[in-house]
Amino acid sequence: MTETVARHDVVIVGAGPAGMTAAVYTGRALRSTLVVEKGIPGGQLNETDRIENWPGVAEPTSAPDLMAALRTQVERLGAEIVQDEVLGIEPGRQVHRVVMPRRAVEARAIILAPGSRPRALSTEGAARLTGRGVSYCATCDGFFFQGKRVVVVGAGDSGLMEALFLTRFADSVAIVVRHPKEDPRAIRASGVLRQRAASHPKIRFLWNRDVAEVVGERGVTAIRLRRLDTGEIEEVPADGIFVNVGHMPQTDFLRGSIPLDADGYIVTDSRLRTSVAGIFAAGDARIDAHRYAQAVIAAGEGATAALEAELYLAE
Ligand SMILES: Cc1cc2nc3c(=O)[nH]c(=O)nc-3n(C[C@H](O)[C@H](O)[C@H](O)COP(=O)(O)OP(=O)(O)OC[C@H]3O[C@@H](n4cnc5c(N)ncnc54)[C@H](O)[C@@H]3O)c2cc1C
Q1: How many CA atoms lie within 13 Å of 165's alpha carbon, on the beta-carbon side?
Q2: 111 lines ligand 1 (CB under 6 A)
């Protein structure tokens, strides 16, 4: 059994906007708080360039910088952030165990905020060419596509954000959309992004198509698209494919200990309480919140979960 090395009032799993906002609240409530983060604090916002819908920040601002400031705030308020991966939760009656590879800690309350990761493109060639032209992060890889032709798959907020970002580097950016142009569901992104993309000289939309195959030997050379009206396959030359086809919750480590829905999202009541007393959830990994997948909503849920945890601890 993994050795238990410490006990905290609150352990928070994940240091994205949800987990770090929760830590601001538990820190200010003077609860000993440990935040466990397997990657870089900031979560998914580290994968984007600018954010312009964070309340109170008047101009588009660097999303990683915003998250770095939130981290500083968390640490100033007394919460500790450690880099480690939570492998499992062992719920108890009064105290729960949080298990990591080399140690475990006890927590009187746990806030689960593990967020989500990009859903993989399952078509032929996509897995083989990931890292060789197929990318899930324009901020990370866009620089390598200077003067190239890229295709973005997916037309939600993050798809259009990535397409606009890629225009800095690429010569042309084509966006594959699964619906016809006149279908109101065609583009799920907000109006302002839609307008910007539609009027950008480097961007064009490939309507009513889905991806049949990613083509290339050592690197991507083209993408084969299926026209959804005729079934016809067409080949579009491309050097890079940026995939934005949704997200999956990072909740495998909770299977068997915390109720999840059929898609793996953490089930809670409206006060963000799981069915296990003292364990709460917030952000993109939680049922309902992932519908919106917005940083400010995740942060608001982090605050709610922390206030609920405080009520629970005070009782
Ligand atoms: C490219 C892109 C652009 C975006 N742009 C915007 C935008 O402009 N505006 C906006 O409002 N939203 C935007 N979003 C969405 C926003 O980033 C998310 O809604 C938000 O980050 C969700 O916060 P979260 O804390 O729930 O989860 P995440 O940000 O996913 O953070 C979860 C954290 O938990 C960690 N973690 C997971 N499992 C474990 C484990 N077992 N052990 C330890 N740590 C773990 C992860 O490493 C991660 O750091 C964007 C997202 C992307 C991908």
Answers
A1: 22
A2: no
